[in-house]
Design brief:
The complex is a heterodimer of chains A (256) and B (67).
Chain A (H helix, E strand, L loop, with lengths): L4 E3 L2 E3 L3 E3 L7 H11 L3 E8 L18 E5 L6 H15 L3 E4 L12 H13 L3 E6 L3 H9 L6 E2 L13 H10 L6 E3 L5 H9 L4 E4 L1 H4 L4 H21 L20
Chain B lengths: L1 E5 L2 E5 L5 H7 L8 E4 L2 E3 L14 E9 L2
Classes of the chains: A alpha/beta (256), B mainly beta (67).
Chain lengths: 256, 67
Amino acid sequence: MSDPFVLAGKDFSSRLIIGTGKYSSFDEMKAAHAASGAAMVTVAVNRVPLDRKTESFLDHLDPKMQILPNTAGCYDADHAIRTARLAREALETDWIKLEVIGDQTTLLPDNEQTLEAAKVLVNEGFLVLPYFTDDLIMARKLLDAGCPAVMPLAAPIGSGMGVQNPSNLRIMREQLPDATIIVDAGVGVPSDAAIAMELGSDGILMNTAIAEAQDPEQMAAAMKLAVEAGRLGYLAGRMPKRLYASASSPIQGAIK
Amino acid sequence: MISVVLNGEPRRIEDEVTLDRMLDLFSLPRQRVAIELNRSVVRREDWPATSLGDGDVIEVIHFVGGG
């Protein structure tokens, strides 16, 4: 069955996008990346340390993977815009995961600042993938601003709580049938990923759920299957929910 | 000598040092990094022609693990 995942005009072989943070070693990260089947990975922009030699982190990534730099750690539009511009200059890529955080404890997004930054960056030719609160109206505004996809959260970053507001994702899917929706943040276990996909999300971005698993490589493989299973389930269309039973075996003809 | 702030840290360097030379002075990497001078990105091709002045604020970034 052909079910291409096209994002900003580019074909991706996987609907799973994964992070590169929190792994205990490069080898562990590489094994998890390979097991996940992901075709795109996120990286963070950071100051080069002045007083010690640094290994190039990017050398540890599969060169076939699309690198998606993020603006993590930015608390206002201006900061995120500057970070995106630096990332573009260093990597020669227009792709940016836009993240403008509003609060240190929850890491919930500042949607207002995110929209402001998105408008500026889209105007400068960036392919802006914004992380934002799972809100239909905000999604519309980000799409109207020219973002090729929107990335609503399932739950706070690194919380592993799973999809907290499934109805929000459903509404977003139904009201924005042509939009590319990628659930970003909050997934904890494979069933969370499957649920997000069953709700009609086009893809999922996760980091901690894999990196902080006891066995990241195995969890990455599980997430791959969960994303695929959830996607197939969504495309197949679920049975209607009923309050009462509906027998699967014929009642007529049963022996008495 | 002039005073600059490099990646948040005060540093004293000689006059007329270019961004290109600065990377060598501080043993900073050149590949897949970017430089911001006073909040504006300086393109790689302009590093050799961009000299630092007193009070300049420079950010040199690279990439690390993140989500």
